[in-house]
Structure formats: C-alpha cells, structure tokens
Design brief:
Elements: H1 32-40, E1 48-53, H2 55-62, H3 66-69, H4 74-89, E2 90-91, E3 106-109, E4 115-120, E5 126-128, E6 131-140, E7 143-148, H5 155-164
Parallel strand pairs: 1-7
Antiparallel strand pairs: 1-2, 3-4, 4-5, 5-6, 6-7
Helix pairs in contact: 1-4
C-alpha cells in the first residue's frame, strides 16, 4: 500500500453550494447532487481523497435519480447507497494526479478496505479499478476530489445493486 501525502498549494477549489463560482457544470463530469451529498458526509478539516462518481455515473450505474431518490420512502435507501459508495471511494490521505506514476500502478485501501488500483491512462487521466476520471485535483477544504465516469464498488455491492434493479439494460 502506498501512502501519499502531497502539499495542496495550487489546486482548484470546488464549491459545493448552488451559487459558487467554481461549481462543476451540469454535464458528464459534474459532481452533481449525489456527489455533493457524498462529499458532505466527510469532515472538511481532515485529509481525504475521494473518487466521487459523476452525476451521470450515479444515474447510469446506480440508477439514482434526484426527483425519485430524495423524496418519500427512497430517502433512507439513497443515503444507505451513498454511504456504501463513500466507503469504497475514499482514501484517508491526499492523492494528487501528479503523485501517481505514469508507468506504475499505486495500490491503496479505501475506508471499507477495498483495494484501489490507481494508475494513469495515455491521456494522463486517473483510472481507479478500471473507472476513468473526468476531472482531477479539485479541492474542498482538506479533501482532494477526483470526478469519475463510473462508480467504484466491490463486486458483492455491485451485484446487489444490479439485482435490485428489475429493468437491467
């Protein structure tokens, strides 16, 4: 396991409020509401790296929809899912894209103990357990945030999400 503590002198800061000037735009590399909710579960004053799924990834891979998931009976289920995703995607130290070798994979443990295999692709974007990043090195307090084009999760959780969905693609 590699433990990387890197100074964060010039990282862009991402605002998670609705009127922040650095808010990620609403498209395929957007943090979105579910990403914001996930990030807000972490204390801002501790060093973490989070490989947060984009809004598109939450919708596509977990079939979470804002208008359905945040009202009525689904609220508790949504928070349970976000908590599990958080445990798979957070590392308790800072990992900047520059700290990942262009040629060597970094292996580290998430909060849940899931092994994360972090590398770079030909375009120098991070790839974690086969999921490619769309944005890297965003900052919120002491956190480093990488927006991912998929959801990093263990196989058992993925199977349970797929089996709960009656209309698989």
């Amino acid at each position: 396991m590699t433990n990387c503590l890197i100074p964060m002198s010039r990282l862009p800061d991402v605002s998670l409020s609705n009127n922040g000037s650095n808010k990620v735009t609403e498209n395929s590399d957007s943090i979105g509401k579910f990403g914001e909710m996930t990030i807000e579960m972490l204390p801002r004053d501790l060093s973490f790296t989070i490989f947060v799924p984009s809004q598109t990834a939450f919708e596509r891979d977990l079939r979470l929809r804002i208008n359905e998931s945040l009202t009525g009976e689904k609220v508790n289920d949504t928070y349970a899912i976000l908590t599990r995703v958080l445990s798979f995607t957070v590392v308790p130290w800072k990992i900047l894209s520059e700290s990942v070798s262009d040629t060597k994979e970094m292996v580290c443990d998430s909060l849940s103990g899931l092994k994360l295999h972090v590398s770079k692709d030909a375009d120098k974007m991070l790839v974690v357990n086969g999921v490619r990043s769309t944005r890297v090195n965003l900052r919120k307090g002491e956190m480093v945030i990488h927006v991912m084009d998929g959801v990093i999760m263990e196989a058992e959780f993925e199977q349970s999400v797929r089996s709960d969905d009656g209309d698989e693609d």
